[in-house]
Design goal:
- By secondary structure, the chain is an alpha+beta fold.
- Helix content is 30%, strand content 27%.
- It has five helices and twelve strands.
- The chain has a five-stranded antiparallel sheet with strand order 4-3-7-6-5.
- A hairpin with a 2-residue loop joins strand 3 and strand 4.
- The longest helix is centred in the last third of the chain and has 15 residues.
- It starts with 6 loop residues before the first strand and ends in a 15-residue tail after the last helix.
Length: 199
């Protein structure tokens, strides 16, 4: 039975997540004649990319940041992950905040105040509620459900790479390789090590 909050649109199906996190990517699954769509949080998208790497699927990316996952043994199957936010919309302040979260590693945590405001503690630094809300809203953070742990999502890493690439005035042809490196360098979510290889 579908979730009561599921909304069927003309071009996608939106299903709410029980823990209330924001979406980072729109997923399209092509399995022969079967076609499914839906939204993924940063943690779910990172997990999907991690599973693809573990199972040695082919992962490609275009200059817009769209990821294509194709099982090497079943080329007729394909999963397309389109980022919800445009990578160029990352500001300098948000870049610095994501760099703080990245530097804090596993010590980065979500903190909720009594009035419900959410901030991010990144080591000795703290990202205030308004800035944390924007990072979470755009799917640039990956939050492991029910743990309070937060990290920079694949979408966030790709946005950081885009901004760095633009600031360095590098050739546009380098973008796809940089995006792919950023997406594949996301630390694997807990539990991925136990996933068996696909037959």
């Amino acid at each position: 039975m579908a979730h009561p909050g599921t909304r069927y649109r003309k071009d996608h199906v939106s299903t709410p997540r029980p823990w209330g996190y924001e979406y980072a990517a729109f997923k399209e699954s092509h399995f022969g004649e079967d076609y499914q769509t839906g939204y993924l949080t940063g943690w779910e998208a990172d997990g999907m990319i991690g599973r693809a790497v573990k199972r040695r699927h082919l992962v490609a990316v275009d200059v817009l940041g769209t990821l294509w996952i194709t099982p090497s043994r079943r080329p007729q199957r394909r999963i397309v992950l389109t980022l919800v936010r445009v990578l160029a919309s990352l500001t300098g302040r948000q870049y610095k905040d994501l760099a703080l979260i990245e530097a804090a590693g596993s010590r980065a945590r979500i903190r909720r105040t009594e009035d419900g405001a959410v901030s991010i503690e990144a080591g000795m630094m703290s990202i205030p509620p308004a800035a944390a809300w924007i990072l979470r809203r755009r799917g640039w953070t990956s939050e492991i459900p029910h743990t309070g742990r937060v990290a920079v999502s694949a979408a966030g890493r790709m946005a950081m790479v885009h901004r760095w690439h633009r600031s360095e005035d590098l050739n546009r042809r380098l973008l796809t390789g940089l995006y792919l490196d950023a997406a594949l360098s996301v630390p694997q979510a807990p539990g991925l090590a136990e996933i068996p290889p696909e037959d």
